[in-house]
Queue: 2 jobs
Job 1
Amino acid sequence: MQRAPHHRSRSRRGITVALLAGAMAASLLGGTAATANQAPVSTAKALDLPSPPGGSNVKVLVYYASATEESPVVNAGIEAIEAIGQTSPAGKRFKTEATADGSVFTNANKLGKYNAVVFLTGGGDVLDPDQEAGLESYVEAGGGFLGIHDAANTEPYSDWFTGLIGARPAASAPPAVQRATVEVGDRVHPATKDLPLEWKRSDQWFNWATNPTGSVHTVAKVRESTYKPGTGANGADHPVSWCRDYDGGRSFYTAMGGTADSYSETDFRDHLRGALQWTTRLSRADCKATIDANYTAERVTQPNQPDQQDQIGEPHGMTIMPDGRVIYIGRGGGAANAPVVTDWNDPNVGKGIGQIHIYDPKTKQVTLAGSLTVFGNKGGGDELVKVEEGLLGITLDPNFATNGWVYVYYSPFSEIDRDTQIGQRRVARFTLNPTTDKLDMTSEKVLLQWPAQIHSCCHAGGGMAFDSKGNLYIAVGDNNSSQFSDGYSGNNPEPNYKGVSFADARRTAGNTNNLNGKILRIHPEQDGTYTLPEGNLFTGKETAEGGGKTRGEIYVMGVRNPARISIDKKTDTLYAGWVGPDAGEPSTTWGPAKYDTFSVITHAGNHGWPYCMGNKQPYRDRNLPDPTKPLGWYDCDHLKNESPNNDGLVNIPPAEANNIWYSPQGGAPDYPRNADGVPSYDPTQATYLLPWLKGGGQATMDGPVYRFDPTVKSSVKWPEYWDGKWFVGDFYDATNPRHAVQMDPKNAGEGGLPVSADSLRKIIPVGAGGIRNLMDWKFAPDGSLYVLDYGRGFFNSDKDSALWHITYKGGAPTPAAKDLARKAAQ
């Protein structure tokens, strides 16, 4: 019979804990119990005692009482935990005892002999007030707790137990057993490190009354799109297993284990084994890595002085020195009061100052390292007025510590032709004096320069990165207008200025003989020249098809506006993101809506623009004499560049699939396709393959792949949980991505979708007072993260333009090394 609910007073609990705590801590940690005449032993003092919990005889208590009915999984669960204890590797074994007698929790000397308590309980109120106080005392003294499935329905009137579990099931009918996919995001914790990235299994899947994400450390989620979650579904973020350091002890909860068959699964036993290793103190693990409160976001630059840019220019990119100093650039838009010249008859049209600042975290001071006179200050407004050129990218030579070389990508004002309205994009090298933090502006070595039309805006790119072989990657925008194609494929061949097209990206991104709309790869040489590495998309010698040509610098073609790229320093894999066109919704006539795109790039290729986007979704062709009339759909696997503005090859490489794409309607839209492979583009038929991802106002900002370095002694470095995760974000903070995603290395380079995603929206804060316009983000050598906030205006800097520093303060994994069990029972 179920007992009436008890409402324990805090004063009674305090008395009970005081009586039990001394004996509990002493028993758990091998010390001497406090007597009634002694002050109770505090958790902190107990953890200083020399003997580890359990001594040489590690034990686990399985408690299986139920106030409703005995669960059919109890026997299977006890048998599984016993087998785990007996068959674990030497040094990780333990003994198991099981009971349904709650009096064990009021016997401190007995309870303190267990390293961990497992609740294999049914629902309801299974402990009386003294027994619950005993469990609390046990945890406060450093004990470990593992809750399995229905344990989340236990002690429903206890706020403390709710905190111990982490979340309560939603008030709905008991879930049916369904097969679903579990996303295993934590590749470090012993409970998940050896599980499949995508774990397919059958179980009962609870919905949560309150999602615990951010207050617990989630190690696995269930993917709701793979089963029917029913009433109260949690959505794309649906935790299923998590842990936390709680009230002096350790708590792990898994919602799995709702069927007897679960306990015979090898993978599920491995999951429980790892959870028990941590809760018993047989292993250390980090259960703090995704708890929002363990991160601090601090603005480290001050607002500029009035009418100046002494702290920061119009933020457009950054890089970090080996000693931790941050170099960041301003594109060229001035302070809010700076004059903007848009008249092409004025010799100063578009003239701006691209600034390079250095922030020193040791002194907290900012230094202006140098300035470049750029074409990049025509202001905003119409496509034929505004400009996105300027100082666009920066990176350091791999041997920067010894040679001081800094590479920049910019548009020199001195090279513009006001008559033809053609400018130049340039990659150059400068030398920085590390003592004065000043660039030697006379040291410039121009590696590469090529033309760009500047009659019409937009898409300049800007990302730069080196790989381990010393190859330099440069992300270059397609130099194409956003208008004249209704926001779909930028393929209108008609608009031009003095014979140069500015609305046909087949002239640039889709052209094998043009460096715009590409990611270039070159190898800088000591003398300021460059060579071409093997493995680029072209050799530069292709002359087939009636004199068509190529450029050997091209590694990736078919990108629209790649503002940010990154190289994984462990694998040398290139990661990139680029901004899509402007159509707010798909068109059955012209093709997909605007898709902002992220891609894992493991080989040279064509990523589709302006022919195909996303997972090879084609646009409709158009051409002279009437570009308003649609022609056939592009064949993504057999692409032809038949633009009258093309001076490269006609037959071009096929489009590659991309990993992440999103529109205002959602993440990774997909549609049924006809016999020719053309999607329906009917919004009512859309499937969203990445439901965690939303769009809206969109501008991708590719981020780094984090690599945890155990040799770096740092109190602020992000924990190992994030190792190998790819940071993807958007300039805008509304509903757009700001996530760390887990990719499957087996298919990432072939367009495989992310396995899981962790939101960073509270760690890298959004909203008023936060980082609203994320322009760039990179990890420092000490493992902390720096983020550039563009500010709230456009084409200038304002009071919110800033450099931010995101640090981790959660501390080391638990338990401390000195508190580990020295020897498991054999």
Note: The two ends are 40 Å apart (CA to CA).
Job 2
Amino acid sequence: MASMFRSEEMCLTQLFLQVEAAYCCVAELGELGLVQFRDLNVNVNSFQRKFVNEVRRCESLERILRFLESEMENEIVIFKPEKYPETPLPREMIDLETVLEKLEGELQEATQNQQTLKQNFLELTELKHLLKKTQDFFETETNLPDDFFNEDTSGLLELRSTPAAVAAKLGFTAGVIKRERMVPFERLLWRACRGNIYLRYTEMDTALEDPITKEQMKKNVFIIFYQGEQLNQKIKKICDGFRATVYTCPESAAERREMADGVNARIEDLNAVITQTESHRLRLLREAAVNVWTWGIKVKKIKAIYHILNCCNIDVTQQCVIAEIWFPMADSGRIKRALQQGMERSGSTISPILTAVQSKMAPPTFNRTNKFTAGFQNIVDAYGVGSYREMNPAPYTIITFPFLFAVMFGDCGHGAVMLGFALWMVTNEKTLLAQKSNNEIWNTFFGGRYLILLMGIFSIYTGFIYNDCFSKSFNIFGSSWHTRPMFRNNTWNPHVLEENQVLQLDPAVPGVYSGNPYPFGIDPIWNIASNKLTFLNSYKMKMSVVMGITQMVFGVTLSLFNHIYFKKTINIVLQFIPEMIFILCLFGYLVFMVIFKWCHFDVHVSQKAPSILIHFINMFLFNYNDPTNGPLYPHQEEVQSFLVIFALIAVPWMLLFKPFILRANHRKAQRMLQTPAISENPAGDIEVEIIDSNHAKKAGQEDHSGGHGGHDDHDEEFNFGDTFVHQAIHTIEYCLGCISNTASYLRLWALSLAHAQLSEVLWTMVMNIGLKNSGWGGLIGVFIIFAIFAVLTVAILLVMEGLSAFLHALRLHWVEFQNKFYVGTGYKFSPFCFKSIIDGTAED
């Protein structure tokens, strides 16, 4: 649990494995998922690494598996066991290759045979239709004798429906072409042959299936009459260009009928063979479907292991694999047990050796999460992965993020709808996880289901505070605004309260206000008051300022824990203390004035209450002689003058002292380097002992970067100018940021006001119309109006306004809160984990 507040303590270790045991040990670490391997062969080409051939073999197996899955698509259901299979041993890879290559060969042969048979079937089907259409043409369009095409005619013979004459031997070409190519085909024939042909075509009744793409094709049967061999050659070339299939068609009707009978018989035989081939192919796919998913997982694991082994070194004796790994210190026992299991599984007798490595590299950042906290940690990491061992904002974000969202989204009704949606996702999370949707928007919502759950709960709470539910108020405890019997004759009588559309609520009117506040939230009578916005604006604006300054002060306080953990005493004295003085003397005092005014001035003297804004401005101008704005309390001038002066002192405190102290420490370290330790030896010679430079720097130099990281850049040369400019930027950014960040928190008020007004407008413009109508028409109309109201509520107030409030809450955490203590310049811990690799969530 401590790792939630600060990232896990990491350890860099050198791992020595026997070559025979390396595969099994890495496999066990992959199952554990708690070790990040460093690439020790960064400068080595990928094709020159030790296990590149094994990786290529795995890629070949993946290609075969993709081929099998593509063949099964939309035909065979792949069986997926609930648990992942165990990591196979290296020798199992050979058996897997044999099985998959054999299966691929059989399937390719069956597929090739099937395509060949279907191609033959397609050609025979086209020939069948061509013979039928050609016979119909000769029977209906001409009365020529069967031996007409074998005779030479010296005269002109007219064909029915054409003026073209045949003066010599007449020939014809018949074939099949795709329907969409028919028009340009006809046009080109006419132009190329200069009109000396006679073309007739008709559409085929049924669509044909392409044997390769399996697409449905619509084709036409055509017949072309021509005269002479020259036109015949032109027609053949044009047919080839348009990929038209030309078939040999007998000239006599008897031969055509005989050919048609033969074609029909061959089609029946082909149908039987195609059916048997398809059943054989499906049988192969069904047998493969039982294991293809398991094979895929095994291949992914094998490939991942060899990829990790390629990141390791092998000693000169070729007997030892050397790896460098990062892992959490808390899990060292589990990692040692996993290595021991890997050694036993491989049959090796030499135990793996773990040796700690001293390094100046910044360790990776690892925050242990679960399904509840993962969403909040992702919000923080989206801004920047935390530096090693610095304070983690995620635990505080679990409460502050949904609460600030709810301040802007406060509505009981909308919060209840959001809560219901989140509860549905949470209660059905196992079913929804099993579906593994590829919809990015849905995955985003589902990943943040617990965040949405808390946002819904907090929205309901703030909705009760605002007493707002779909722009209407609850009257649970009865209003504190009422008319006493002795005042029933005044302007505040029940008749006026019911009839008056413009009602100003003034607590100072005698007998109208009971003097007791509403027990919880805002009095419901404000919902009908014309000065409702005036009251709510004042309330929500001051509430936003109070919450904003409180969160910023909390953020500055968290920076103290970073300074203490990293032992940055200079940052505590010269950075944290002046920062806290500055923000408390100015903005903390503003919160004090707001709360003091709330507590000190009641309804009877509220008209005489001074303006806090004018007081705050006069505080910086040292102007205390404003007759229109009296003091809040006695000795206010002395208190405010002291706070302003103290806040002004904090600015040079932050700006000047730290750079000069760092320079003094640096010069001290330099003197230690230049001062030799002189000792006299017995011979009288002088021995000079040089102090270790790194040790001197560690002893004398503080981190001058201003950050909260867990390592110092001691090897970098100290530059006073850069340090001073950096500190000046930090000081200016902090001082101006306190002002701009406080103003930025007013978005809580603005978004809350906008949401309430949109909700009220939607009720008035839509739902109110259906409730006004009476009778059967109104009863039917209210269902239609409610449907429109529900759709607009979900689309505008829940989705659009919810997203707007979410983004503003995100900005308040990233900019206004986290910049007070969070650096976020680290890099994420990416362990070698089979589950992440298989699910596709592993980091590259």
Note: The chain has 26 helices and 15 strands.
